[in-house]
Amino acid sequence: MEGLGVLEEMGELTRRGEAFALATVVWRQGPSSSQPGSRAIITAAGELHGWIGGACAEPVVIREAQRVIADGTARLLLLGTPEQFGGGVPDGMTVVPISCQSEGALEVYIEPVLPAPHLVIVGDSPMTRTLASLSRALGWRTDRIRGPDFAAEAADGRSMVVVATQGHGDEEVLESAAAARPAYLGLVGSRRRGATVLGYLADRGVPQDQLDRVRVPAGLDLGPTTHQEIAVAILAELVQLRASGALAPALAPELAAVRSGVPAAEPARDPVCGMTVAAGSSRPVRYEGTDYHFCCAGCRQAFEQDPDAYVKRETRC
C-alpha cells in the first residue's frame, strides 16, 4: 500500500471511528529503502499499512506509533546511530539507535489521528434536532435515531448516548443503550421520571452497575429552560466531562500496556546488531536451549554461520 492507497485507508479508518497513527518519512540518509514522503498507517493493534523502511525501522516505528496513539501526542524520531547525527539534534526529538546493515538513517514524523467524539441522540423532537446541529458544529460524529429504530449496536464504549424519547419507550431504549456500556448515558426527563424508569429496569434485572451510570436529568442544571437551552446544557455537560477526562474510553490492552510502560511482550535483543526487537516478530533460532530473535534475515544468517561468536559477545555484554 502506498500513495493514494494510504489515504484511502485513512479515510476508511476515520469512518469506522478507529484511532491510528500516520508515520511520514521527512528525511533519509542513504542507503535506505524509503524516500522522503513515504507514509504508513499504524493501527492501535500494531498493524502497519504502507512503507516507511525495512526490517530495522518498522518495529521501532510501530512501537513509537502505539505510544503516540496512547498519549495523543505527536513525536519526531531520528532513527540511526547517534554518530550519524552528531551533536545537532534539537530538543524534543527522539533518537532511537538502530544498527542496520545498510547504515542508513531516517527521520520520521508520527502523528496521532484520533476519532471524533461519537454522539448518539435517541428521539425525534426540536431539542434533539438542535442538539444534533450543535454537536456537528463541533465536528462530532453525530447520529440521531428514532426510539423504535435504536439498537445497542448503534453505540459502543466510546460513544455518548442521550435518550430523549419523551416517555415513548424510554425503558426499552435505555435498557438497550445501557447494554452497550457507552462512555456517557443520559436520560432527558425529570428526576422523578428518571427514578421511575430506573426502578422499572432494576425490577427487570438490568445490572445495577449499568443503571448507576445513567445521568438523570442529562445536562447541566440551568433551571427552567427552553428546548434550545436544554440542548446547550446537554452539550455543555458532555464538553465539560470530555475536557476533564471523565469520558476517556478504556484503552485497548496493547495501548494500555504501552501507556503504563509495561511491554505487551517481552522484547528481545538481536545478538548480531544489538537492536531491540519484539520477541514474536521473527522466526527465532534455537541454540543451546535458548531462542534468539533477529531484526532481519541478514542478521539471522550471520548468526547461523557462527553462533558461538555472537553468544559469547552477548555473555560479555
Notes on the protein architecture:
By secondary structure, this protein is an alpha/beta fold. It folds into three domains: 4-113, no CATH class; 121-244, Rossmann fold; 265-316, no CATH class. It has helices at residues 4-15, 57-71, 126-137, 170-179, 191-203, 208-211, 227-244, 253-260, 297-305, 307-316, and strands at residues 20-29, 39-43, 48-50, 75-79, 94-96, 105-113, 118-122, 141-145, 159-163, 184-187, 214-215, 267-269, 276-278, 285-287, 290-292. The chain has a six-stranded mixed sheet with strand order 3-2-1-6-4-5. Strands 8-7-9-10-11 form a five-stranded parallel sheet, sandwiched between helices. Strand 7, helix 3 (126-137) and strand 8 form a beta-alpha-beta unit. The two termini are 40 Å apart.
Short description:
The protein has 317 residues and is an alpha/beta fold. It has helices at residues 4-15, 57-71, 126-137, 170-179, 191-203, 208-211, 227-244, 253-260, 297-305, 307-316; strands spanning 20-29, 39-43, 48-50, 75-79, 94-96, 105-113, 118-122, 141-145, 159-163, 184-187, 214-215, 267-269, 276-278, 285-287, 290-292.
Helix-strand topology string: HEEEHEEEEHEEHEHHEHHEEEEHH
Low-confidence stretches: none
- The percent of residues in helical segments reads 25-40%
Main CATH class of the largest domain = Alpha Beta
- Rg to the nearest angstrom? 26 Å
Give the topology.
Elements: H1 4-15, E1 20-29, E2 39-43, E3 48-50, H2 57-71, E4 75-79, E5 94-96, E6 105-113, E7 118-122, H3 126-137, E8 141-145, E9 159-163, H4 170-179, E10 184-187, H5 191-203, H6 208-211, E11 214-215, H7 227-244, H8 253-260, E12 267-269, E13 276-278, E14 285-287, E15 290-292, H9 297-305, H10 307-316
